[in-house]
Amino acid sequence: MTPLDAQAVILAAGKGTRMRSARAKVLHPLLGVPLLDHVVRAVQSVGVDPITVVVGHQAEAVEAAFRGRGLAFARQEPPLGTGHAVLAARERIAVHPERTVLVLYGDLPLLRPETLGRLLDAHRSGGAAATLLSVVLDDPAEYGRIVREADGSVRAIVENKDASLEQKRIREINAGIYAFQPGRLLEALAQLRPQNAQGEYYLTDVIGLLRKAGKRVDVVTAPDSHEVLGVNSHSELAAAARLLRQRRCQALMASGVSIEDPETTFVGPEVEVAPDAVLRAFTVLEGRTKVAAGAVVGPFVRIVDCEVGPGTQILDHCLLRECVVEEGATVGPFAHVRPETRIGAGARVGNFVELKKTHLGDGSKAPHLSYIGDATVGPGVNIGAGTITCNYDGVDKHPTRIEAGVFVGSDTTLVAPITIGEGAYIAAGSAITEDVPAGALALGRARQVIKKGWADARRQQKAGAGKGSRGGPGGA
Ligand code: UD1
Ligand code: CA
Fold it and tell me: Which of 47, 175, 248, 285 could form a disulfide with 3 if both were Cys (CB 3.0 to 4.6 A apart)?
């Protein structure tokens, strides 16, 4: 179907009672993005327009989460059923009376664009008033059943709660994805009555109404039953996450990414991983993260919205957010890289190092136990163990500038704002409060004092005093 032959309505106004959550069901995260996002993405990729999302429960929050995505919204208040939800979009549908209406539920995150394409194609070539997607399940559970006539044509959809014992045995179920002729849909919606077990206006009743009016309804049966898993509970959310994860990992492996353990690897829908990258066990990649060829990530690493360059290594137990790691750099184990950080080519960030809003120059090293925040660090700098930028005075944040080739001795505090000039040396244990000129040595610590024999004398004194007592040498 060519794009502008069809429009779409996605239903996302329901409360999601079975989640037992204060949060709207469609906003629950799945692989790092809201549940509804997966559906929106599938619908957008088949090129239908416009796409109207029906919102109701927590409407503001749902709209806010999808602002700027080219979607239109319609409000359904209160939510009185799936048919009632489509009615909320009636005026929008009527704007394009010639465009097929694709109606689907916002809780179907595993749906593939190809399947939507097949449904739209079948609808166009079949010319029915409605074409719906069905699937055959071993356990039809809570899904609506497709009831057929003796000749195989569809008679109606019966909800599980309204089904007779005999109907409950039907294993062909309604996926919740339909293509309608707009005029036929709107006519049938107007006739809906909430006369059923749940007292709701069921969209599914539209099918029976169309049949009663002598219209044709076609069915496309999807081969992969997983694809239409509706998420109604946390348990189904977890099942959907598992399936999506597997699907993503399979596709990445097919494209040449090495994944040590797909069972424990999470790659979000917007993440890009290049061939020949290696994802070790328990790696979580979220947001708009990009991992380049030859990068080795994990085990036990979470990366959100980062660019991980070619040939880099992100070692065990690191958390990275909104940062760039340039070619050949090494991070971790146990590093925390916070937003707006750039780690230069070949640089090294070691264990228990936290970086925030910092540019670490090419080939620079912060190998152990440091906090570097609001800093610009030139190339070839060595930051000794235990170096701290004191960037916060309790009110404001201040910058630290460390120029090329500086050597910062261990256990240094750099009280910002401060600049350490090119090639300077900072003696270990210094508290640096004034700018250090290029090429200089800065010492910012008390001078060491030696008292010869002091320790021996004290020990002897203690031993003498403690004779016969329970204190003993060194006792307080
Ligand atoms: C629905 C179908 C069922 C089908 C199943 C597939 C109906 C009556 N039943 O059942 O035949 O097998 O999906 O997954 O359609 N919504 C609204 N407004 C409302 C009610 C629901 O927008 O007033 C939205 C929900 O947010 C949800 C979707 O519609 O995204 C489906 O609603 P849900 O309650 O999950 O329907 P099911 O009981 O799963
Ligand atoms: Ca559902």
Answer: 47
Digit-coded pLDDT (tens) for 141-187: 999 999 999 999 999 999 999 999 999 999 999 999 999 999 999 99
Structure tokens at 302: 């979470």
Report the C-alpha gap between 327 and 309 in whole angstroms: 5
Q: Is the entire prediction scored with pTM above 0.70? A: yes
293, two tokens:
């060829």
Half-sphere exposure of 272 (CA within 13 A, CB side): 10
Residues with CB under 6 A from ligand 1: 11-14, 54, 56, 76, 79-82, 84-85, 105-107, 143-144, 157, 159, 173-176, 202-204, 230, 232
User: How far is 67 from 23, CA to CA, in rounded Å?
Assistant: 18
Q: At residue 1, does pLDDT exceed 80? A: no
* DSSP bridge partners of 10: 53, 104
CA distance 180 to 129: 6
State the alpha helices, DSSP H only, in 105-204.
113-126, 165-168, 182-190
Output phi, psi for 337, to 5 deg: -110, 115
250-442 belongs to CATH 2.160.10.10: yes
Query: Whose CA is closest to 388, among 357, 365, 355, 347?
Result: 355
Alpha-carbon gap, residue 355 to 195, rounded angstroms: 61
Give the domain 6-228 fold: Spore Coat Polysaccharide Biosynthesis Protein SpsA; Chain A (3.90.550)
Q: What is the Cα 404 distance to its own chain's centre? A: 37
Cα(294) to centroid of ligand 1, in Å? 45
Average pLDDT, the chain: 95
- For residue 90, the tally of other CB atoms under 10 A from its CB is 15
Are 187 and 94 in contact by the 8 Å Cβ rule? The answer is no
At 278, is the pLDDT very low, low, confident or very high (cuts 50, 70, 90)? very high
Phi and psi of 355, rounded to 5°? -120, 135
**What does the alpha-carbon distance between residue 148 and residue 134 come to, in Å, rounded to a whole number?**
12
Tell me which residue has its CA closest to atom 36 in ligand 1. 82
Q: What protein residues have CB closer than 5 angstroms to ion ligand 2?
A: 107, 230, 232
